Amino acid sequence: MPKDELIGQTIAGYHLLQHVGEGGTATVYKAEHPKHGIAAVKVLRMRLAQDPVAVKRFLREAEYGTRVAHPNIVQTYDFGQTDTLYYLALEWVDGEVLEKFAIKAGPLAPPLVATIVEQIGAALSAAHAKGIIHRDLKPANMMFNPATQHAKLLDFGIARDADLKPEERLTRAGFFVGTLQYVSPEALSGELVSEQADVYSMATITYYLLTNSLPYTGRSPRELFQQLLSQAPVPLNQAVKGVTFPEAIEQAVMTGLERDLSKRYKTMDEFTARVCPALRGSGDGGKPGFLRSIFGR
């Protein structure tokens, strides 16, 4: 069924008002509900509704969302099947996708990056405490409201349970999941990863928000794949010509990008505890104004 044909229909009490976006597996609508008011409703694409693995993954995303309640995670209201449609109803979040905001705003001032990283980091720590590894962290999976400076994690589309039995995996061994620009090197083998993989992705996001560039410069998936496996990331202070960050910031971010797991932060809390104070200036002796001197903000 074409997406436009669903507008005006009601799914499990959610009246679909308008089409707002497309994901890899689902179409997203703005909807109205008698109890929840305005909501976002994801509908699994019809061509995937006959695929047992796709359906199971879609419902697992919904189930993970109900397991974690946190102010920086979009709330899951409801999910299920009606007729031939699988749906997932979520809290409606004002603001814009963080990726779009970052592209429009350019490199963000370090204190603002600290605010975003602190909030998303807290959300991920809550998910990790429930045994959920996200595996697909990227600015496109986060919302940000510039007016309130509030950030939220959007979905658990390819998340997995840390205690999942091998026979219950939805990814074939030897195939990685995630977005190549943000995925950890150890995930490229397709093996199960720990929360340190999410730490790596958050370090990459931090790097990107500060510089509008990525720590690996491969122009094709093949080149990027090879760089992730065999090369060190571009140091933060070499990412943008003429821009130098205090040593505390560079060290905190680059430790999160360590290929060697024994050198990378073990938990998301460790990462945010190091990187956020550095971004706010306490990692540079608390010298006032040093961050403004970098970007003139």
Summarize the structure.
By secondary structure, this protein is of the alpha+beta class. It contains eight helices and eleven strands. It has helices spanning 52-67, 98-105, 110-129, 195-211, 221-230, 247-256, 268-280, 292-295, and strands spanning 10-11, 14-22, 26-33, 37-44, 76-82, 85-91, 96-97, 132-133, 142-145, 150-153, 160-161.
- Report the structural category: alpha+beta
Number of DSSP-assigned strands? 11
Low-confidence stretches: 161-177, 283-297
Cα-atom radius of gyration: 20 Å
Distance between the termini: 49 Å
Major sheet attributes: 6 strands, antiparallel
Please estimate the helix content: 25-40%
CATH-defined fold name of the largest domain = Transferase(Phosphotransferase), domain 1
- Discrete helix count: 8
Gross CATH architecture of the largest domain:
Orthogonal Bundle
> What is the H/E string?
EEEEHEEEHHEEEEHHHHH
Mean pLDDT: 85
Total domain count: 2
Structural shape:
globular
Question: What strand line-up does the widest sheet have?
Answer: 1-2-3-4-6-5
| CATH homologous superfamily label of the largest domain | Transferase(Phosphotransferase) domain 1
Would you state the CATH class of the largest domain? Answer: Mainly Alpha
Determine the strand fraction and express it as a percent band: 15-25%
